[in-house]
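Exercise: predict the fold of this chain.
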Amino acid sequence: MTSTVPNAVQHTDAQPPITMFGPDFPYAYDDFLAHPAGIGQIPATEHGTEVAVIGGGLSGIIAAYELMKMGLKPVVYEADRIGGRLRTVGFDGCDPSLTAEMGAMRFPPSSTALQHYIDLVGLETKPFPNPLSPATPSTVVDLKGESHYARTIDDLPPVYREVMDAWNTCLEEGADFSDMNRAMRERDVPRIREIWAKLVEKLDDQTFYGFLCGSEAFASFRHREIFGQVGFGTGGWDTDFPNSILEILRVVYTEADDHHRGIVGGSQQLPLRLWDREPQKTVHWPSGTSLSSLHDGQPRPAVTRLDRTAGNRITVTDATGDIRTYRAAVFTGQSWLLLSKIACDDALFPIDHWTAMERTHYMESSKLFVPVDRPFWLDTDETTGRDTMSMTLTDRMTRGTYLLDDGPDKPAVICLSYTWCDDSLKWLPLSPNERMDVMLKSLGEIYPGVDIRKHVIGNPVTVSWENEPYFMGAFKANLPGHYRYQRRLFTHFMQDRLPADKRGLFLAGDDISWTAGWAEGAVQTALNAVWGVMAQFGGATDPANPGPGDVFDEIAPVELPEG
């Protein structure tokens, strides 16, 4: 649905846009990246030094790109393909312009550090057709066998407005929404920290569902049920009900669920273009140097073993058996891989960091896309005068169906189903065609006069991220009581606080961030790791542009007692 979050403070040209920089660590990564002084430098004596970057997703590629610009030599290891969960695929035998976003597909304007790199490589974005958004011609909400057709929320029955109002009231009364929204828009760091410190202490042990139930506004079970099935922004949120309410507040405070845009041509272009990009300003390396040229076009293969060796070095063994030792390494894969796919020396991390990784809770997620001959859903039904088919939210197996086109006369794509958690696991045993058959049956019950199958022009493509061997889940989502674990992982880049024999290996990636499931978190933690590597090699930022580690003590995440 369109955002149900009240816009307490209207944006003006005098105010920066709200960003996903807080509230846990209210650092302006967008300003850091835009500053003409750059993001730091290392001593000339360290130029050309190799640094391992494990994982070629967005976080790994950005870390490698920025380390290369500083004059270091990143050595990227990638088990599968460059892009990670920025994975764009085509359809066999179909027009190459038809693509499906198997991972990240919609990005909020508040992802301002991500936008820096989107602009850097010259990618275009366009509005994403979320339910009831201006980019969506129409939406159908189908619950308990009853369908409602809408172009705006005012077209839905009054109960949906009641649910929206209940959510707004719940946020205002239980989470100081207007006050925090204003502070974040104005980048009022002391006020952000003051509000958030109280909420972290109060709500760390609270589930999303418990937060709703604690509000008189959501005293009605029917209202909570509708909210779970339809939700706000991108659709139903009942799969998040067991998660920490702090995770949800981060999303609404930063407007991460609002005004989404997709990347024209597919999101995987971003890491691929950075891989090939030749920076205009780089240190040590000659003009024309790129990550690709430093690797002869291909990253190193999968990492199979990590050890801490003499001299506090990080020794990396890859799938070919090649063994290389580095003074510093950045690990950007999902942290569970360090407990499963990669044989690891216990000495790599302090024990409490190992505990935090083991406790990380990942969300399952599945999608299935089919190519169609044209956007037939825009045809007008002669009987009803409505669109033949609409973006669809339902309590049936499909849950969310998205309609994606590039013009009325061109082939198009339908995301027949996008599901999370238990809903995703239901698809796991089924083949792509079996999944499609079940989905078409569900949609046929909502649109009995529409023959979707006759428009399908190619085989479906699908993904279940929990079944992907190098992911084992789509993204992190903390459970109640996990705040302390996340703080350990996020602050790991501040290695002067670690024992000397536990330094040199830096964690990054969206599951290390406070905003997991959003590409912005991958960008932010990559920049944290770059700062950490720079500091380890004796480098520094320009005083006019302090990095995240330079201001850490001023804006460090709230620290809850461990006793």
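Check your answer against the key: The two ends are 42 Å apart (CA to CA).
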